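Researcher: We plan to redesign the surface later, but first we want a full-length starting point. C-alpha cells attached.
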C-alpha cells in the first residue's frame, strides 16, 4: 500500500476552494481533510487542481515534423510532446492524428500510423508521464479519408473522432478572404495557383464529405467512440451533427452554432489560445463571448499545451460569472466526462489521484508538481 499526504493546500474542488489536506492511497484519492495534519508534504498554500484533460491537440506533429521535409524519430517525438504536455499540468491527453490528407499536408497516413504505434509502445513500456489516448481528426473531404480511418479499426486507444472539412467556403473558412490569408501565406501560391487549389478542394468536398461523414459516424456508433463536429457555422451544420450522433461541438465558428449545439445537448469546446489571445485567429466567434452567455463547457489547448492551464486562470479574470472551480472543470471534469473517463478530472474521494500543484505569479499559473495516480511525474 502506497500513501501520499499533501497538506496546507488550497484544494480546487468541483464547486468550491477549501484549505486543507488530501490523502492519496494506491493512486486514488482516499480522503479530503479541511484540517492541518502535522505529517505530509507542505504545499505552502499553493493550489491543488485535478489533472488537466486535453481532448484536441495536434501538437505532436510539430515534434515529429519540426520543419518541412524534416522528420524526427517517432518515439523521441512522442517523448518530447509528452514532456511538454505533462509540465503544463495535463495528465490525460487525446493526441489528435490526421485521418485523410488534404493538399497542404506535409505528412502521410503511414506516418500518422507510425506515431500511433510509437504512442502505444511508449505507453505499454511506461515511458510516458501523462496517459495518452487517440483522437482521430478526419478530413472528410479527402479522397483517402475512409481508407486511413479503417487502419485504426482495432485500436483501443481511439476515444474521440472529429469530422472536419477545411475546404474553402466551409465552416472555419466561410469567407474566401480568410482562406486566402491562411493558405496563400502558408503555401506561397500565386493567385492563379490559389484559384485552381480552391476549385480542387471544393470539388473534393462535394464528392467526399457527405458519404465519408455518414460512414465514419456509423462506425463510431458501432464501436461506442465519442463523435465531435468541427467548426460548425450554421444551424444546418448543427442539425447534421444531431443526426450523426455528435456529442462534442469543437470550435463552433458562430454564436448561433454554439447556442444551437448547447441546446441540442452537445458539450461546446473552444480553444484556450482563443481565450488567452482574446479572440479567434480566423476571425470567428470569441470563446469569451460564449463563456459570458453560458455556452462554453470545455477548453482545449489546440496548438499550445500551456495555454490550457493559462486559460483556466485567465477566464476567471475575464468573465465575472465564472469562478475558478468552474473554470478548472472546463479543463478537467468536463472533458473527462465528454470522453467517457469518469474516473478522473475532479478532486473527490474515489477518483484517480491525478493532481497538479500550481502557484500564480503575475497572473500566470506556474506548474510546480504533477502527480498521475499518486505517482509524481513532474
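Model: Full-length starting sequence:
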Amino acid at each position: 500500500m502506497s500513501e501520499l499526504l499533501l497538506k496546507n493546500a488550497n484544494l480546487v474542488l468541483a464547486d468550491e476552494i477549501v484549505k486543507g489536506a488530501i490523502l492519496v492511497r494506491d493512486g486514488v484519492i482516499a480522503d479530503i481533510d479541511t484540517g492541518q495534519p502535522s505529517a505530509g508534504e507542505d504545499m505552502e498554500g499553493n493550489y491543488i487542481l485535478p489533472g488537466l484533460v486535453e481532448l484536441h491537440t495536434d501538437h505532436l506533429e510539430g515534434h515529429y515534423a519540426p520543419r518541412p521535409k524534416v522528420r524526427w524519430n517517432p518515439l523521441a517525438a512522442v517523448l518530447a510532446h509528452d514532456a511538454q504536455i505533462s509540465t503544463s499540468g495535463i495528465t490525460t491527453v487525446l493526441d489528435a492524428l490526421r485521418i485523410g490528407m488534404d493538399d497542404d499536408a506535409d505528412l502521410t497516413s503511414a506516418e500518422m500510423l507510425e506515431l500511433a504505434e510509437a504512442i502505444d509502445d511508449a505507453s505499454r513500456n511506461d515511458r510516458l508521464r501523462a496517459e495518452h489516448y487517440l483522437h482521430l481528426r478526419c478530413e472528410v473531404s479527402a479522397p483517402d479519408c475512409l481508407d486511413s480511418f479503417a487502419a485504426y479499426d482495432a485500436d483501443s486507444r481511439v476515444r474521440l473522432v472529429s469530422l472536419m472539412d477545411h475546404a474553402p467556403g466551409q465552416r472555419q473558412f466561410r469567407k474566401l478572404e480568410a482562406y486566402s490569408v491562411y493558405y496563400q501565406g502558408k503555401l506561397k501560391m500565386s493567385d492563379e495557383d490559389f484559384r485552381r487549389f480552391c476549385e480542387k478542394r471544393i470539388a473534393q468536398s462535394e464528392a467526399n464529405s457527405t458519404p465519408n461523414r455518414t460512414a465514419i459516424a456509423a462506425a463510431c456508433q458501432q464501436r461506442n467512440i465519442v463523435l465531435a463536429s468541427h467548426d460548425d457555422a450554421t444551424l444546418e451544420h448543427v442539425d447534421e451533427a444531431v443526426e450523426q450522433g455528435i456529442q462534442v461541438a469543437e470550435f463552433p465558428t458562430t454564436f448561433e452554432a454554439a447556442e444551437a449545439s448547447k441546446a441540442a445537448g452537445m458539450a461546446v469546446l473552444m480553444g484556450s489560445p482563443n481565450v488567452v489571445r482574446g479572440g479567434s485567429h480566423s476571425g470567428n466567434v470569441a470563446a469569451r463571448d460564449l463563456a459570458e452567455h453560458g455556452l462554453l463547457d470545455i477548453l482545449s489547448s489546440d496548438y499550445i499545451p500551456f495555454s490550457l492551464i493559462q486559460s483556466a486562470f485567465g477566464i476567471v479574470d475575464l468573465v465575472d460569472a465564472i469562478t475558478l472551480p468552474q473554470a478548472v472543470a472546463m479543463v478537467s471534469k468536463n472533458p473527462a466526462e465528454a470522453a467517457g473517463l469518469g474516473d478522473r478530472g475532479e478532486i473527490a474521494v474515489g477518483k484517480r489521484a491525478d493532481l497538479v500543484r500550481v502557484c500564480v505569479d503575475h497572473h500566470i499559473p506556474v506548474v510546480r508538481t504533477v502527480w498521475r495516480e499518486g505517482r509524481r511525474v513532474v
